[in-house]
Each structure stands twice: as C-alpha cells, then as structure tokens.
Design goal:
Radius of gyration: 22 Å
Mean pLDDT: 94
Largest sheet: 6 strands, mixed
CATH architecture: Orthogonal Bundle
Number of domains: 1
Shape: globular
Length: 413
C-alpha cells in the first residue's frame, strides 16, 4: 500500500476522506525575483492548495496560517533535528555543529531550552530596560542632530549593536563580525545558490570570531553569556554545550532584531497616519513593533522534515520529506487576519508567527521586543516627522527579509 493509500484509509483499511495531491508550482522561493516581492507568489500559493510542491527543490510547502501553525505545533511529526533549512542532516553533514535549540527535538530540546528561557526571562529583561532606554535616547539625540541618515546602518543596526553585545557580555573588539555571521547562518538554510555560496566563501573570519566569543573566558561576568556557562557548573548542561548555546544567541539574537526595527521604521515612514497615531499614544510602541513584525516578517521561512507518513491539509506527505513553512505568507493570510495587507498599529497582532510558534518559538523574543519597543518609544516621543528621502534598497537573504538602506529625514517634535 502506498503512503497516500495508507494515509487515506481508516482503521479498517476503508478509504474515509479522499486526499488531494500537493499542487506543483513552478515558483522558485529562493530566486531574486521572489525575494524582491514575495507577496504575489504568497497569494498564488495560498490560493492553490493547503499544501503545494516545488519540483525544482523537491520540497513541500505550506503558505496558509492554519497549516503553518499546525506544523509549528507538532514537533513529533515535523522534526527540526534533520535541519530547519533545505539540507537534510540525515543525508548530509551540517555545515557547522547543529544548534542545540533550533535544530533539536524533544526531549533534548526541552533541557537546553529551559536554560535559555531562564537566562532570557522577564526577570532578566527588567534591569536591562533602563540601560536600553538610555541607549535609545542617546541614539535618537545623535540622529536629531544629523536630521538625515540611513535608517538601517545608523539606527536599526547601530542601536542593537550598542546594547545586545554588552547584555551578552562580549568584548568590545570584533563586534563588526556579528551581522555578517548571522547573515551566513540564515543564508545557509537555503539551497546552494549564489547567496549561500557567497556567504560561505566570506565566512572564515566571522566564524572564528563567534567561536572565540562563545568561550567562557571571553565573556564578561554577569552577562547573559556567563549565566549560560554557569549552568554547566550546576550540571544542567555540559561544558561542551554551553558555548553552543551562546552561539545560538549570537546567531539569531541580532539580525532578526535589526530587520525587525528596520521593518518598523520602513512601515511608519510609509504610513504617516500610523506614525502620528503612535506619537499620540506612546503606549502603542510595543504593539507597533509587533505589527511591523507581522506585516514585514523579517524571518520569512523555515523548514521541517516529516518523521512519518502524514496528512496535512488533506494532503498526503510521505516520511522524510522537507516541508517549507512560509511564515510571512501566514502572517498575511486573509483566512486569519482582517485586512492583512494593511499596516495597523492598533491591530491585535498576537498570534502572528513572525517569531515562530510552539516549542521552537524564538527564544530571544523578549530581548527583541524590548529593543524594538524602547527604540520606537524614544523616536515617537521626540520626533515629529519621519520621511523617506532617497532610494530604498533590499538586503537579499535566503531566509530573512529586510533592507540594505533606508534614507530617512527626521524633524524634532
């Protein structure tokens, strides 16, 4: 009996519900044209079927919210340990040691996840808020003096780089390697295209820096990195695991925040009514960042691998197949959201999958949300107008979506 036949049969072996085929699409979700404007393709995928198939990459895809959410919340059926990119770790060696968080399944995932959840808990975030607010105000002060600047390099990158490495306890030298390293990680989740090859060709110094920074002797006492290593003293993790957990934060704790803040700036500059709404009610700063993450989805996609024959969206998927989740498409699925293509900072955006969902939900989400909130609060409190005053250019990445340059001009309130 084929996988499809067995999955469409009841316990008696009698066919219960007719299954449909995954609809094949000649869309390349890793092409430059797709990256430039993925929304039309997202619409095609959502309307085609609950589950689609990309012959060129031999992978299934889900673009509707319901199916994306289902995959994220069933780690037993859709595993991460075989890689959350196109590469299948059961068939090829990972380009680096697998992540103990992102590329792990229960029960192993739960043990290491508990450590990161504690060192990044709300109780840890609370004392960080004050220093983040001071840094955000200082950043806005400097930008108000200049009035015109690049919203990406001078704000979306500059602010997280001024607070995140210190919170982690990194040394001052070499921090310029952090963003290229994160770009390498997220490009490596895609196929062996030009983006991935270029990132890996240039990766040696970035990988060497990160590997060194993950070691206990290079992390400042009291920082988040040192707290991770301290868990090895109590036996919660091994000394060999501690550097890998620090690496997880260095891999995913910066670029996603940079892209998130960049997305918020881009949205608020394009929607001046929403900017004025935020200025009138500063308590909306957190929600404005949340809506920007839903609307622009800095993390666009992730893969899972089926651990058994399964039915998803009334479609049979055999064991050992890659399933590509389009998080960004789910975040604009009209089946889930009213007016999904409208940027609305008062929207109840909770439930979006911009930070993932389920057991693998972004472990650094509290840190990212804190950085996004305090920066938008600082800007809205002191800036009257936010205007795009030059060509906006995209940054292309196999997994992330963001901007390379965002020329802005601001005026003091």
């Amino acid at each position: 009996m084929s996988a499809k036949e067995s999955l469409s049969a009841g316990s008696s072996g009698v066919h219960q519900v007719p299954l449909q085929e995954a609809v094949p699409l000649q869309i390349d979700p890793f092409s430059m044209d797709f990256f430039a404007d993925p929304h039309p393709a997202h619409h095609v995928m959502r309307e085609a079927a609950p589950v689609v198939y990309f012959p060129m990459w031999k992978t299934y895809g889900v673009a509707r919210y319901e199916e994306v959410h289902a995959v994220l919340h069933d780690p037993q059926t859709y595993c991460s340990s075989r890689g959350v990119g196109l590469s299948d770790f059961a068939k090829e060696k990972p380009w680096r040691p697998a992540s103990l968080i992102l590329e792990a399944d229960p029960p192993a995932h739960g043990r290491t996840r508990a450590v990161l959840s504690r060192v990044l808990s709300p109780a840890v975030m609370k004392p960080l808020r004050e220093s983040f607010v001071v840094a955000a105000d200082a950043c806005v002060d400097q930008l108000l003096q200049r009035q015109s600047f690049d919203g990406i390099k001078d704000l979306a990158e500059a602010f997280p780089l001024s607070v995140f490495p210190d919170a982690l306890g990194l040394k001052k030298d070499g921090r310029e390697h952090l963003i290229p390293y994160a770009a390498l990680v997220f490009n490596s989740f895609g196929p062996p295209n030009a983006l991935r090859q270029r990132a890996q060709e240039l990766s040696a110094p970035h990988q060497a820096y990160v590997q060194a920074q993950c070691q206990r002797e290079n992390l400042a006492e009291g920082g988040i990195g040192a707290k991770i290593h301290a868990c090895a003293d109590t036996g919660e993790i091994t000394p060999a695991e501690a550097p890998l957990l620090v690496r997880s934060l260095l891999s995913a704790g910066l670029d996603t925040t940079v892209y998130g803040i960049g997305a918020a700036l881009y949205c608020l500059a394009r929607y001046p009514a929403e900017w004025q709404r935020l200025r009138a009610d500063l308590s909306l700063a957190r929600n404005a960042f949340e809506e920007a993450v839903r609307f622009e989805s800095p993390v666009q996609t992730f893969f899972r691998t089926t651990t058994k024959d399964v039915v998803l969206g009334n479609t049979a998927i055999p064991e050992g197949e890659k399933v590509l989740m389009f998080l960004a498409s789910a975040n604009r699925d009209p089946r889930r959201w009213d007016n999904p293509d409208q940027f609305d900072i008062t929207r109840r955006a909770s439930g979006h999958v911009g930070f993932g969902s389920g057991i693998h939900m972004c472990v650094g989400q509290l840190l990212a949300r804190l950085e996004g909130e305090v920066m938008l609060h600082a800007l809205a409190r002191r800036v009257a107008t936010l205007e795009i005053t030059g060509p906006v250019t995209r940054a292309f990445n196999n997994t992330l979506r963001g901007l390379e340059a965002l020329p802005l001009t601001i005026k003091a309130a």
